[in-house]
UniProtKB/TrEMBL annotation, chains B, C:
Assigned EC number: 2.7.1.121
Transferase in keyword set: yes
Keyword Cell division: no
SUPFAM superfamilies tied to this protein: DAK1/DegV-like
Designated name of the protein: Dihydroxyacetone kinase subunit DhaK
Alphabetized UniProt keyword annotations: ATP-binding, Kinase, Nucleotide-binding, Transferase
Molecular function via GO: ATP binding; glycerone kinase activity; phosphoenolpyruvate-glycerone phosphotransferase activity
EC top class named in words: transferase
Upper taxonomic lineage: Bacteria, Bacillati, Actinomycetota, Actinomycetes, Pseudonocardiales
Residue span(s) of domain DhaK: 7-331
PROSITE patterns linked: DHAK
InterPro entries named among the record's database cross-references: DhaK_1 (IPR012736), DhaK_dom (IPR004006), Dihydroxyacetone_Kinase (IPR050861)
Source species of the chain: Umezawaea endophytica
One cellular component term from this protein's GO annotations in UniProt: cytosol
Biological processes, Gene Ontology terms: glycerol catabolic process
Length: 201, 333, 333, 201
């Protein structure tokens, strides 16, 4: 999570710039604020189970991020926390289940469908990739790499579509040609998780 | 970016402190989580009227906290909806035993955060209702978007419902009144130049010297259409026509006309625009019975304006005229 | 230049028409010569308080016409002092038999035109007195200039003297009170960006991205010194220190602190600056008893602010608190 | 006067630009407004004596120009009108006397001295030049040409001095290097009168 905070800090301006193009320009700042608060919270009192960490992430994002992204990411991490319960070490099938739960949470709150130009466009293909990786019996690093690749592709795919949810939807046709900032931050987070699990960062 | 600030990350907090020192008799400000509460809260037996949203729209909402309007306001970061714990704190601080009505502007972030907050507050044992205001007619394809945004009409809603609550209306009554107001208030805005979010450092959008952005929201998000700048007559008409056609407003209707500045447009231009709107309404046989002119629902230093029309009846006129004592709106007291 | 106007040459007239339609209960507007008069004028037996000056400073002065403040305001063209016939008309329309006090801001043009007007009005048989307000401490070498300018303090003067006249003070009393207020009010302002006079089409001055103009007047005239932009703490201090040193204000003094926006600076920044000023005053042991925050004495869409300090005593506090009902200031009624 | 109105219209932007540099940018507009109103007034009802014309100019400028220039030019023309009384045709000595009266009026109202960077810096040398021309027995066109030359030189001289009166005085040192707009408009008016008297326009 510390790494995720660093990645989000590095990409703060990029995310805000994406949000400025089709939204209100605060997505980078929002995400950075949330994850910076998370680092502080973890330093104070780090939970020892994966589920505990996920729950802390959820509560911190909900109370620090605000905007659309706060409750959506918050719900995602909360549902993931519930899905992994108090498992000690996560295996690939559990990670796939957790990702699916996160997606379901985002959709339950935000009611976005694939192609609406939101974070769902990154998260949904990531979940599908994770599930088939788990089925193929791959390990957690490989599963997360597959999810991250799919999310990145999904984020790229948002460039060409017209926004139907969130602030960007007010732009109508003019939202076409810009990547969705929330999809981009989802892809960034998954890439970070994959890198950390693979020992790259 | 040139602003009178110390640090982009402390703007909202420092501004709230300044607001607290400017109005010690009216409000109390709590910083973490950030809430502006009327000084005499909780008022026993009174429904608490609570609103909130991103900062940068001042005086909305903190400037409307006080007798006859809001019991509390929850300011988020600039243009970022507040978090559920802020709203939960506001409910706790204003709970007079009669429940709370949350006034939410229709933005995905606001709706989601207030939704969560309502769940938290209900768990605390307070009866909570929410209404979502979506008066911005600039958003046309509501089916394919997050829906219409809440803009200038929010002020009128807060004033009218605040007056009813002050008079003792119960939670059902306040909610029903709010839905009625939402049903008959419509707005639209335009920008000549965007404002700059402090931590972004650059304007939300850039317009050529001869362009305006029609149908802007109040969050620096671009509007729906970029057009050549016209005369004031043309610009006012381009705001008024979609409003009139939408409800629709018809000859003989009694209305409140609210000519709002976006923060960077001076009063001399707002009055000029207001005069044009009054003339156009008179030509259509629409009767302007109440009016408000000024920068009340702003978007930082955005240059631009919006028009809001609320269809009036005797009940609404009486509630509009009822005493109000807040930092930004005050009469009868 | 991007403005919500039809034609630079009709801006003032059209804006006055809009103002008239926005406040039918409060004011009456006459266009040639241009005068804004309180709706119930003349008030028999009351000293008429009259002010005026170039347009572009709205709500000053027309927004302060009404019960408990001004009887009439004479708006000139943008940034151009009004002509004597306007002032003469204002005197005639508000003459309740107790004479008229003219509140003149110290600019060569205003002084000369009001002087001529006073002669005309005296010839009409009305007792007329004039006071010249010059509260701007930015002008240091008064001996070698046209003297200090009248800026933010004008509003406080109009409020206090207006309250006294409303209570029945006679012409001598109003004049003496005005001189007392002028003696103990001081102001200073700064700009981050100049406004644009409609018929000029270009900003009054141009500042680099990291510069501010310190000691600006309200007519788009540049200030005395161009300095690098600092933090809000530094900017507020650079306004407050010269004010405090000038009168001087000392520990234990009771004051009214007026944090004024120049037209293009949003409330979020004004409150932030206000909070800093309150803190600095508290550190000096100066007691802020009353405050006002907002864009009241503006310079078109200039980005910037000014601070005004008025030394208070019980009389002034009472007059400040007295009911006022105008377009821009209202309380107690 | 019609010609003066035209000249001022032509120079409106120049005068306003000068005023923007050291004042509030309205001098051109103010003068143009006044003389345009004068043309209308003259068309409605042109006085038949020079004194009558000067008086109409004075009253129109006082009620239409505003700012510092309105009462100053107004007083100047009013005093000039009084000085010429009801003379039918103006001779050179009378013109010199009228110009002196105008100067005295401006100084009485505005209390500016030579070198304060105001219209006085153009008008005073013009008066001196007119008086010595009258003494030398020159005719009206020659007198006015001498006055106009001196006024132009006087206006030029304002570039180098520091303003001590009017709005420009607030600038202190920074007023140096810019011509005073009022001195420039005085020079323009005198040049126009000279041109008309000489039959050049
Ligand atoms: N209804 C929704 N469902 C899923 N994701 C959404 C929805 N609405 C917005 N988003 C996501 O939120 C992102 C914007 O987040 P952020 O900028 O932090 O909030 P805000 O739009 O309130 O300023 C969008 O890029 C999009 O991916
Ligand atoms: N006290 C004074 N005496 C003589 N001339 C003056 C004085 N003050 C100002 N002026 C002249 O008036 C001119 C400015 O006129 P104008 O721009 O129309 O008025 P304002 O300064 O009120 O905007 C200056 O350039 C100067 O020549
Ligand atoms: Mg955003
Ligand atoms: Mg936001
Ligand atoms: Mg002027
Ligand atoms: Mg000028």
């Amino acid at each position: 999570m510390r790494t995720a905070a660093k990645v989000l800090e590095e990409h703060r301006d990029e995310l805000s710039r994406l949000d400025r193009e089709i939204g209100d320009g605060d997505h980078g700042e929002n995400m950075h604020r949330g994850f910076a608060a998370l680092v502080t919270a973890m330093e104070r009192d780090a939970p020892d189970s994966p589920g505990g960490v996920l729950k802390l992430v959820a509560m911190t994002l909900i109370s620090k991020v605000g905007g659309a992204a706060g409750p959506l990411y918050g719900t995602a991490f909360l549902r993931a926390a519930t899905a992994v319960k108090d498992t000690g070490e996560l295996d690939a099938p559990t990670v796939a289940v957790a990702l699916r739960a996160a997606l379901d949470g985002v959709v339950a709150r935000g009611k976005a469908e694939r192609g609406d130009k939101t974070m769902v466009d990154a998260l949904l293909p990531a979940v599908l990739a994770a599930e088939s990786a788990a089925e193929r019996g791959e390990d957690v690093p490989a599963l997360l790499r597959a999810a991250a690749d799919a999310a990145a592709e999904g984020a790229d795919s948002t460039v060409l579509v017209l926004a139907r949810k969130g602030r960007a939807s007010y732009l109508g046709e003019r939202s076409v040609g810009h990547m969705d900032p929330g999809a981009r931050s989802t892809a960034l987070l998954l890439r970070t998780f994959a890198d950390v699990a693979s020992g790259h960062r | 970016m040139k602003k009178i600030i110390n640090d982009p990350s402390t703007v909202v907090e420092e501004s709230l402190k300044g607001m607290a020192s400017a109005h010690p008799d009216l409000i109390e400000v709590q910083l973490d989580p950030a809430v502006v509460v009327r000084a005499d809260a909780p008022v026993p037996g009174k429904v608490a009227i609570i609103s909130g949203g991103g900062a940068g729209h001042e005086p909305l909402h903190g400037g409307f906290v006080g007798r006859g309007m809001l019991d509390a306001a929850c300011p988020g970061h600039v243009f970022t909806s507040p978090t559920p714990d802020q709203v939960q704190a506001a409910v706790q601080k204003t709970d007079g035993g009669a429940g709370a009505l949350l006034i939410v502007k229709n933005y995905t972030g606001d709706v989601l955060n207030f939704e969560t907050a309502a769940e938290l507050a209900e768990a605390d044992g307070v009866a909570v209702r929410s209404v979502v205001i979506d008066d911005d007619v600039a958003v046309t394809d509501s089916l394919y978007t997050a829906g219409r945004r809440g803009v200038g009409g929010t002020l009128l809603l807060e004033k009218v419902v605040g007056a009813a609550a002050e008079r003792g209306a119960d939670l059902d009554g306040c909610e029903a009144l709010a839905r009625k107001v939402i049903g008959q208030v419509r707005s639209m805005g335009l920008a000549l130049a965007a404002g700059t979010v402090p931590h972004a450092g650059e304007p939300g959008f850039t317009l050529a010297d001869d362009e305006i952005e029609l149908g802007i929201g109040i969050h620096g998000e671009p509007g729906r259409r970029r057009v050549k700048i016209g005369t004031a007559d043309e610009m006012v008409k381009s705001l008024l026509d979609p409003i009139l056609d939408d409800l629709p407003f018809a000859a003989g209707d009694r209305v409140l006309l609210f000519t709002n500045g976006m923060g960077g447009t001076p009063l001399i231009e707002l009055y000029l625009a207001h005069g044009i709107a009054e003339r156009l309404l008179a030509e259509r046989g629409i009767v302007v019975e109440r009016r408000l002119v000024g920068p009340f629902v702003t978007s930082l230093e955005m240059q631009g304006m919006s028009l809001t029309l609320l269809k009036l009846d005797d009940e609404l006129v009486e509630l509009w005229d009822a005493p109000v004592h807040t930092a930004a709106l005050r009469w009868g007291v």
